[in-house]
Design brief:
Low-confidence stretches: none
Strand order of the largest sheet: 8-7-6-9-11-10
Radius of gyration: 26 Å
Oligomer: single chain
Number of helices: 19
Number of strands: 14
Length: 494
């Protein structure tokens, strides 16, 4: 990307939605605009874990305003991510259809560990570079992320289902602050976070940093009261707890530095933070400027450079873990990319390169299910991908990859896929044909093969000499034509 390019990140959190816009300047992103709206979708989940119509509308109204500000941005300039509330919501697809339309850009529902990675990336980019071992904590509305890392590299990441909105609703439902309520909330938080002790113990990090949300609000209040504004201490948390108990209820809390939107969820957030201090042996925590939205911005830059795209490293790690044949994967990937290039001749070269990269990932992973069982290995591979914590990937993005792995062989009617998605169908056909052409596990002869697409029909032109030389491949191509008959598309080898 060129210097001066505007980039934007949208964070659909459980408590607030945020829009961060920054200008690129020599691999650094400098803020030009920041918008935040309290939406409280996290408190809009009903007993069936569905977003209520009111919660949906609050979110859509906010995203419509964000969408107006983002008019004119290209798709490659915007990253929108959704976190715990939409991970939980059983009707999230209903919300996302409308949300993406009003925002004007795709919204990625990311896993807890991917959220943790992006938080660390955002924090690290706004800190001075140092070899120190860092513990980064982010207490959100419905989840808390813990990360260990050094410099820009997150090494241990986890997300726990405990947060300021969830704990406020559960332990302070009427906004009443009592010693017993705080004690119960802290004990419950420790029960959820207890397993973190083995991975995040005091000997695993040098400095603790707190990001965004609850920790930012606590830091603001303590700073306004005369405490060191750059850090949170145990003494400061004790003082704040005393102030909340003295107020007796959330609506009576009046403190400098405390914003109105944070008051109803401060009790839950403080109880989680105090539990973490006790559990992990934290004496003081530095308040960090970076957050999830900043990590999403820097991740946009990494995605533009294939060599730094963490998704490529994740795919390689999975392929290695499941002992996929690297020679066959590379062979299938090379042929699949060649075929896709023939189908997408009108695409911008940069767009085509991204499409080919994703197709290459499917080729790298198409045989990972073989380690589980050779029978129906494509189904095992798809299951692994649908249930993997794959850093860098959003949940829908990983599912799309799993569909390519599932569909690379066998019947197509088993795919719960959108066959009106032309790009997906082009990638799927390219991968299936590549697997057929590489069936002997050696480099195929591609001379005399030409793949074309018109409307909903694919035609593979095959030279007579090629037919005579590779009769098994010709047979498999005829079988492939039959496989496409029960889809809206047809494939014809001629």
């Amino acid at each position: 990307m060129q210097n001066g390019t505007l980039l934007a990140a949208v964070d659909l959190g459980s408590n607030s939605f945020r829009l961060e816009i920054g200008r690129l300047d020599h691999d650094q992103i400098h803020r030009t605009e920041y918008l935040k709206e309290t939406v409280r979708q996290g408190s809009g989940l009903d007993e069936a874990r569905k977003l209520t119509p009111e919660a949906m509308q609050r979110g859509l109204d906010c995203l419509a305003r964000f969408g107006e500000r983002l008019a004119g941005f290209k798709r490659t300039q915007v990253r929108a991510v959704a976190t715990q509330t939409l991970r939980e919501a059983r009707n999230r697809e209903e919300f996302l259809r409308s949300a993406q339309q009003v925002l004007g850009f795709p919204i990625d529902v990311i896993s807890g560990r991917e959220e943790a990675r992006l938080i660390y990336l955002g924090v690290a980019h706004l800190l001075p570079q140092s070899p120190e071992r860092r513990l980064v904590v982010d207490i959100g509305g419905r989840s808390t992320e813990l990360i260990l890392g050094q410099q820009f590299q997150a090494r241990v990441m986890e997300s726990y289902r405990v947060g300021s909105v969830a704990w406020s609703m559960r332990y302070f439902p009427d906004g009443q602050f009592t010693e017993r309520a705080f004690e119960s909330a802290e004990i419950a938080a420790k029960a959820v976070l207890d397993e973190a002790l083995s991975a995040y113990g005091r000997d695993t990090w040098d400095v603790a940093y707190g990001s965004s949300g609850t920790i930012g609000a606590v830091g603001d209040v303590l700073g306004a009261a005369g405490w060191d504004a750059t850090k949170i201490t145990r003494e400061g948390l004790d003082w704040l707890l005393e102030r909340l108990l003295a107020a007796r209820s959330a609506d009576r809390v009046r403190m400098d530095g405390l914003k109105d939107d944070r008051r109803p969820v401060l009790g839950g957030g403080l109880s989680v933070l105090r539990a973490l201090f006790d559990l992990l042996g934290i004496d003081e925590m530095q308040t960090a400027q970076g957050a999830l939205r900043h990590g999403a911005l820097y991740d946009l830059l990494d995605r533009e450079h294939g060599e730094t795209d963490i998704r490529s490293a994740t795919v390689q790690r999975l392929a290695t873990k499941f002992e996929a044949d690297p020679a066959q994967s590379e062979r299938v990937g090379r042929v699949a990319r060649h075929l896709l290039r023939q189908l997408r001749t009108s695409d911008d070269p940069e767009v085509l390169a991204r499409q080919q990269r994703k197709l290459g990932w499917a080729a790298q992973l198409h045989e990972i299910g073989s380690l589980i069982s050779h029978s129906d290995y494509h189904k095992h591979g798809a299951y692994v991908l649908d249930n993997a914590d794959a850093l860098g990937f959003a949940v829908p993005e990983l599912h799309r990859l799993s569909l390519l792995v599932l569909g690379h062989r066998g019947k197509l009617r088993k795919l719960d896929a959108d066959f009106s998605d032309e790009l997906f169908v082009h990638q799927l056909l390219s991968l299936r044909l590549a697997v057929i052409l590489c069936h002997a596990r050696r480099d195929p002869d591609l001379k005399g093969l030409k793949l074309d697409a018109t409307a909903s029909q694919f035609t593979l032109c095959v030279a007579p000499a090629w037919r005579a030389a590779y009769p098994q491949s010709v047979h498999l191509l005829r079988e492939e034509a039959l496989a496409w008959q029960k889809t809206p598309w047809t494939f014809k080898p001629t």
